Structures are given as C-alpha cells and as structure tokens.
Write a sequence for this structure.
C-alpha cells in the first residue's frame, strides 16, 4: 500500500466490473513499518456470518494492549479483499479468513442455463412423434398377425 494505506483492486471476476476499487488498510496497522512488526501485534478479528451481499460488510479489529485498554476499529467494505480480487496497485498484507464453501463468490454463483435452439426443439418434437407412430404401427401389425 502507499503511505496512506491505500491500494486499488480489480473485482471483475467477482462482479463483472472492470473499474479499480479503493481499499484501505486498517488505521491501527498503518504505522507498522515491517511485516515482522505486523505479525507481532496481538489482535483479533470478528466478522459477520457469510452472506451473499458483496457490497456490504461489517466487522471489528481489536488490538489487545497489556497496559492500556484494547484499541477497537470497525471494519467495512473499504478494508476487505474478496476471493478472486486482483491487487492492481501496490502490495497488500492481510489476514485470510476461511469460510469454507460459503464464500460470497460461490454463494452468488448460479447454475448455467442450457440454451437450446428452435431447430433442436422441432427435431426433438418430430423424433418423438415418429417414435410414437412406429410403436403404434408395430403394435397394430402384431395384433393383425
């Protein structure tokens, strides 16, 4: 991220939009200068249960201080990178929260509709009629014999 904790991401694989979206680092971690220092922070993250909405998010980031009161910051969509997001500018270090198959991308996915042309439908209808006529004729011929 830049000095202000901002990065841009592309989410076209998730929502089809090709424009870059601004994402910001949690302000409690913006003063951190190294990955080593970031991994030494005693913190916890609480997030909402998985749901389909990709444009809404609520959570909390809590830094556990020994001598002082815990520092709490609310998390919003501005602090989140969904699965299938691509970092378009800068680098990002974050926490991965695994929700199993209940990711927003898979919850919003739908089964593909099969497309059948009019010609195929007409050929199927004629084939069914011919098969029915063949069965009827063979039944008539067997009863006449």
């Amino acid at each position: 991220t830049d000095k202000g904790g901002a990065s841009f991401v592309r989410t076209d694989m998730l929502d089809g939009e090709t424009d870059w979206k601004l994402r910001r680092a949690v302000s409690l971690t913006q003063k951190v200068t190294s990955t080593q220092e970031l991994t030494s922070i005693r913190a916890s993250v609480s997030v909402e249960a998985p749901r389909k909405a990709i444009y809404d998010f609520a959570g909390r980031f809590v830094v556990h201080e020994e001598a002082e009161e815990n520092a709490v910051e609310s998390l919003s969509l501005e602090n989140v990178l969904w699965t299938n997001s691509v970092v378009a500018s800068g680098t990002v270090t974050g926490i991965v929260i695994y929700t199993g198959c209940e990711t927003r991308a898979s919850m919003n996915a739908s089964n593909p509709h099969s497309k059948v042309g009019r010609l195929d439908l007409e050929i199927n209808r004629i084939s069914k009629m011919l098969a029915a006529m063949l069965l009827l004729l063979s039944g008539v011929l067997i009863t006449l014999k």
In short: The chain has a mean pLDDT of 82. Residues 138 and 144 are 10 Å apart (CA to CA). The first strand starts at residue 6 and ends at 10.
